[in-house]
Structures are given as C-alpha cells and as structure tokens.
Amino acid sequence: MALTETVPAAPAHEGILRRQSLRESAARTYARSLPIVPVRARGLTIEGADGRRYLDCLSGAGTLALGHNHPVVLEAIRAVLDSGAPLHVLDLATPVKDAFTTELFATLPRELAENARIQFCGPAGTDAVEAAFKLVRTATGRDGLMAFSGAYHGMTAEALAASGGAQHTSVVRLPYPYDYRCPFGTGGERGAELAARWTQSLLDDHKSGVPHPAGMILEPVQGEGGVIPAPDSWLRRMREITAARQIPLIVDEVQTGVGRTGAFWAVDHSGIVPDVIVLSKAIGGSLPLAVIVYREELDSWQPGAHAGTFRGNQLAMAAGAATLAYVRANGLCRRAGELGARMLTRLDSLAAAHDCIGEVRGRGLMLGVELVDRDAAADATGARPADPGLAAAVRDACLDRGLIVELGGRHSAVVRLLPPLTITDEQADAILDRLADALTAAVRTTPGPTGSSPTTMRGTTP
Ligand code: PMP
C-alpha cells in the first residue's frame, strides 16, 4: 500500500468503544457486556453507531416505562425549554415541580398521599434510599436497620450496606421468600410464612442479638436480586409485624414503580401502605429524579438535613409528570399485567422444553429466566445450581440477534426482561422469539458448568 493511501477508518463505533475501554474506570458495568454505541432510539428500539438495530429489554435498568423518546416525554421537555424557565433551581418551588408533585400524589395509595410529605433527593435511587434511612433514624431515635437477603438498594455506603452484596454491614439480614431456592427448603406460602416467623422471632426474642431497629427496607419484587416477586400475603405479614412494633416500613419501589408490575405501585397488589416509599427511575420519565414520600408523622428532621445541589431537575420533573399521567390515562398498568402474564406463559413453555431453565418468574413486565446446570441433580426442593456461564452466553446470543437483555440474581444467572409498558403484542413475540433462538444456540455451544458436552432441547440429543 502506498504511503499516501488512506487507511480505511475503523467504524466510528469501534473507535468510541476502544476509547471507552481505555479511559473509563474498571467499574464500568453495562458497557462491558453490551458493546454498542447508541445513537438513536424510539420506543423499544435502539440504533447503534454501526447501523444495527436492537430491541431494548433493559430499558435503562427498568427506567423507561414508555420506552425511549416517547412523544409525550419529548413534548414535556420541549415545553420547559421553550418556556424560558430556569433549569437549575435547587429545591425552590416552581410550577413544574408543583405539577409533578400533584401528579405523583394522585397515583399513590390514598392513605399515604392524604397524609404525606415528599423529599426531593439527589438524582439517583441510591440517594433516596440514604434519605429514607436518615429519616427513620431521626424519627425513631434508633439506629439499626433490617434488610433482606438478595436485596439491591444502590451503591452509596448505606444503601450498599442494606444490599445482598454488602461485604461489611451492621444491617440485620432477613430471609426473603425465594420460592425456587427457599432457605427453609419448603418454598410456596409455607416458605414465606417461615421467613416471616423468623423475622418476628428476631424482633421479639430479647436475646436474639438484634436491637429494636429504626426501620425495615424491602423490595416488593427483587429486581437485581433475580426477579423474585414476594407473595402479597408475606408483604402483608411484614406490614403487620412492623406496624405492631412501631418499626417504619420502607418500601423500595425504585424499579417496581410506575406500572411495571401490573399495578401503579407494586404495593397496590397487596394493599399495604408503607411508612416510606422510595421512588426513582421511571418517575423521571428517563431523566434523573429521586424522591421519598413518607407519613407526615415521620417528618421530624431539621431544615437542611438532606440537602443537595441537584434536587430540582425541571426537565426530569416535566418528563416524569408526563410519564405518570400517560401511564395512568392509558391503562398501562393493566396492560403490563396482562402482557406480562402472556409472556410468562410463553416462557413457561420454553422452560418445559429446556432442562437448563430452573424457573421462570415475574410480575407484569418484570420477567426473569433462571438458568441452571442442566446436568446437576436437583436438591430436595427441586432447585439446581445456577449456570452463570450459560446465562452470559444467552445474553451474548441475544445481542447477536438484536435483543438487549441483562443478567441479575445471586449468581448472575437470571436473564431479565424489562421491556417498556408500551410494547405491542408483535414486539413481545419478537422479543420472545429472539430469546428462544438465542437460548437454543447458547445451549448448543456452551458446555455445562460440570464440563458435560453441550446438549440441545429436553429429551433430544445434540
Ligand atoms: N433500589 C432498587 C430496587 C434498584 O433496582 C436500584 C437500581 N437498580 C436502586 C435502588 C438504585 O438506584 P440508582 O442506580 O439510581 O442509584
């Protein structure tokens, strides 16, 4: 090649990805498993700089209730920009904030909304979790917290301490009702009841070594923990147990909120009314916003007790109010419930055809497929060891087929689907077709964790 000849430039996306891996921290997350460079997006679809199109079932880790760039969200953002309103206002009152708060309160359980205070927090879910802990500690004068095995509440110090992955923590850990891997070996309602009894006995046994706590935090469906829906009866038990002992119950609806599980808030399924509800992700209509809403009686902290520069994102409030209103007006909670149930039925048939699926589960459009070692024997409760290698192979095979999914769960072996609530039946079918195809391909090419040869479908040979 002559020196003057131009070497063809690597596609822009390759250069961007290479520079990212050279410049960004080793802690980068999604960017590792999803080597794409999004440049355009609408609804369920993302287009990469390489021209490829993907169906996005990660949805900003469950943020995009209406998918990418929904017209009502864009219109709301444009209206603020065109109005000349200030974009930065600390925590001052504005018409945009007033409208957001009114819309949010209209969606909340009435018993809470009628007697509630809202605290605008720093922009991430984890900041709202910190605020909730601070609030209940101030209100009760107590210090300890109770949280659940497998939980995820965020990455700042206290939120992390209350999460399943914590290394150093003084937070008391309680058993979450996980049917497939029930810590009591029973599963079902019985397993959930035993989990509740354990919690109750820790609180009532004066020699349990657990001081009376400032609060208990739980997710109605553990998302990052592997899409594990708690039974409504267990949630009601947690409400009864905490109420009877004057322990504020903090419900983290960062991921489950805004219709995702088939009800506006996941607590609506069980009818429980939390003392504190933690909200973020979808409430900002794809922009950063996080709040806690809590019973007025808890509002005993001092002015400035949870300050922060970025608590007044006007664009997020406008986008969020538009999202809340759209979900409400268009019956998207019911739609998420019905479509999620249909998708779960199809996933059940996938499980029936594949030994490597231990369990499929979910609520609304929060769905998970737990992949297990197809060669291992089931334990006494029917569970088999997780297969994170296969799960990663399925995720990669999905990406090859233009489907973005992420993994969750104790062993990163649960393939998670969090599509927008606005998807059509055809799009839901396309997602499941691609997933089924990816699963078949991954099973064919990935040996089991115990080193056995790849197999294909249940009852067939490779
Ligand atoms: N709580 C739950 C239930 C979550 O799923 C998450 C995020 N996945 C958080 C809290 C933390 O939110 P953020 O990442 O915005 O800090």
Automatic annotation (TrEMBL):
The UniProt record lists the keyword Protein biosynthesis: no
The organism of origin for this protein: Streptomyces lydicus
GO MF annotation terms: diaminobutyrate-2-oxoglutarate transaminase activity; pyridoxal phosphate binding
Pfam families from the UniProt entry: Aminotran_3
Enzyme class per UniProt: transferase
Coiled coil: none
Pathway(s) of this molecule: Amine and polyamine biosynthesis; ectoine biosynthesis; L-ectoine from L-aspartate 4-semialdehyde: step 1/3
Region span, Disordered: 443-462
Cofactor(s) listed: pyridoxal 5'-phosphate
EC number: 2.6.1.76
Keywords tagged on the record: Aminotransferase, Pyridoxal phosphate, Transferase
Family assignment from sequence similarity: Belongs to the class-III pyridoxal-phosphate-dependent aminotransferase family.
Protein name: Diaminobutyrate--2-oxoglutarate transaminase
